[in-house]
Design a protein that fits this description.
With 171 residues, the protein is mainly alpha-helical. It has one domain. The protein has six helices and no strands. Helix 2 runs antiparallel to helix 4 and helix 2 (19-48) packs across helix 5. The radius of gyration is 20 Å and the shape is globular. The two termini are 35 Å apart.
């Protein structure tokens, strides 16, 4: 009973953080999400092209989106680009929990099946990318990159929302 009181007290202490703390945590979570997304896009593209990644993944990976819409992305990069960024969109949709129409039922289940399949296929690419680190290294990398890309963006949004909520309720 005493331990429950201590745990409850610690939870209350966390909820009394100042808004700035939520914004700092939100920025940190967002930066890790962006870094993880850059790595995952590069690993996905390398995997689909059966190529080794010999460049350090950077946030410049996001420049591909601009290049694609501006028509500057090389033709041989279109398939890897669509695969990698399509998977990222599927991850975002799944992590946010976008409510898809339940009718017709076949389209609802097919949509979620494709999202889950894409995430699984992409995780296979992450697993292959880290083959130099052995089974446990590959497993750890695959799980961490899935967590970072699947959860950290949503955690960042929640932190920012909480920070703004705290700002609006403080007098």
């Amino acid at each position: 009973m005493a331990n429950e009181h201590v745990v409850a007290k610690k939870v209350v202490q966390v909820t009394t953080w100042p808004p700035l703390m939520y914004f700092v945590l939100g920025i940190l979570a967002f930066l890790f999400w962006a870094a993880g997304t850059a790595v995952q896009v590069q690993t996905s593209e390398a995997w689909i092209m059966s190529a080794k990644v010999d460049a350090f993944p950077t946030l410049s990976t996001f420049g591909q989106v601009v290049d694609f819409f501006a028509g500057r992305l090389p033709a041989n990069q279109i398939v890897p680009f669509i695969f990698a960024w399509g998977v990222q969109i599927a991850l975002i949709i799944a992590s946010v929990g976008v409510e898809m129409p339940k009718h017709p039922a076949w389209r609802y289940y097919l949509s979620w099946s494709v999202v889950i399949l894409l995430i699984g296929v992409n995780s296979a690419g992450d697993f292959a990318y880290s083959s130099a680190y052995g089974f446990w290294g590959q497993t750890g990398f695959t799980l961490v990159i899935l967590f970072v890309t699947f959860c950290m963006g949503l955690i960042a949004v929640v932190c920012f929302m909480q920070g703004f909520h705290k700002l609006s309720t403080e007098k």
